[in-house]
Amino acid sequence: MRNTEKLSNRALFGYGISAAPVIYSYVLILIMYMKYAAVELGASTAVVGTIFLVAKLWDAITDPMVGSLSDRTKHKSGRRRPWLLMGAPLLAIFSIMAWAPPSGLEGTGLIIWITVAVLGFYTAYTIFDVPHMALGAEISLDASERNRVFGVRQSLKVLGMLAAGVAGSYFVGQGIESTRIMAFTVGALTLVLIFGGVSLLPRERRDFQGRGGENPFRAIRDVLRNPHARLLLLVIFIDAIGTGGIGVLTPFVLDYVVGQPELIPALLGLNMGATLLAVPVWIRLARRYEKRHLMLFAMLGSGIGYGLVLLVSPGAWYVIAISSVIAGTSSSCANVLGYTLKSEIIDCDEYRTGERKEGAYFAGWSFVSKLAAGIMIGLVGWALEWSGFDASVKEQSEFTKDTMVILMGGFPLVCYAIGAIAFSRFRLTESEHARIRAELDARATVAAQPTV
User: Which of 45, 59, 142, 160 has the fewest beta carbons closer than 10 A?
Assistant: First the structure.
């Protein structure tokens, strides 16, 4: 596959659609599970928050392991396909476990069940997601084509997120039986869409096989020694700390602060609709402006959008609506152009080391994001418990409601401001990457010539 070859719509659709059911389950667990576990299953928010934190710490092992192993996988179908197909049944099984525990399970037995389900789900998510991101970076080596790849991926992921925010949150809000039916249905769709989507993908690059680096510890060292990757790790961690609790807190704020829990599906849908509509806008802007400048602008927009939540009050659903549109539009940038930027950083590593370590790099970025989110979810669970949250009553104390609002609005505002200051130091320009890419292409041409 030449660097300038345009990917077919079939290939782009296959790549994107396989991620849709995965993000559906991921987002629904992120947004609705703590409240569902507390209200419907009777679990403590502090305990559930701790389980999520442990799951993210577990990612410290699984993310780099899967990234390195997928880089070094040698299989006739490619480096990434075996991992995608392995993740499908695991995702289905553990998401069903989380939402549909045995009837009557409570106390220690329930906590053990939830722990196994959540840890299992996040492990399965890593098995699928890290190789899937890595595949996107290598399916094309052209910057514009990469924007298309990740733009389609983000569009179809947002449709999965939209389904989770609207339909998924509705079913969970109807109680345990409705949630069980939803869980089994989504489990089946996960298998169908992943296996079907993977079958539409083009063959993986044979010339990348065996170039993933034989030493996983050296791969981690290379990621940390890359100045562009190192800065991005820091920025992602800071931003993810800020946003990690937003999904969990949304149903709490709409229920106990705004007083209109029936708007949860609509407002989540508004946020994800704005995210979807913004995808082609960011791709078009990237033709005129540098990605790093657009991402800096989007970070500031995200901080302002989430910060508006500080103004929320009883009945003020419109504040959440405005916040959702601004934040959704802004966050779409990092989920499209950000992945292209990461792919270019990986090209810089190949320029220096001669290896293709997409798995190791995306594992690092994925891990810091999930770790930060896990820390924040744990903090939210503990803060709710500490502030006196009582799942058995409708009216919470003013202190509890203020805690929810500050964590959902003030914390992201501060974190995005700090993250934007840090990202302003990012120095990989598009002209510098073009020079590196041209040198890599020249090397590949020389290597492909037959020896006499």
Answer: 142
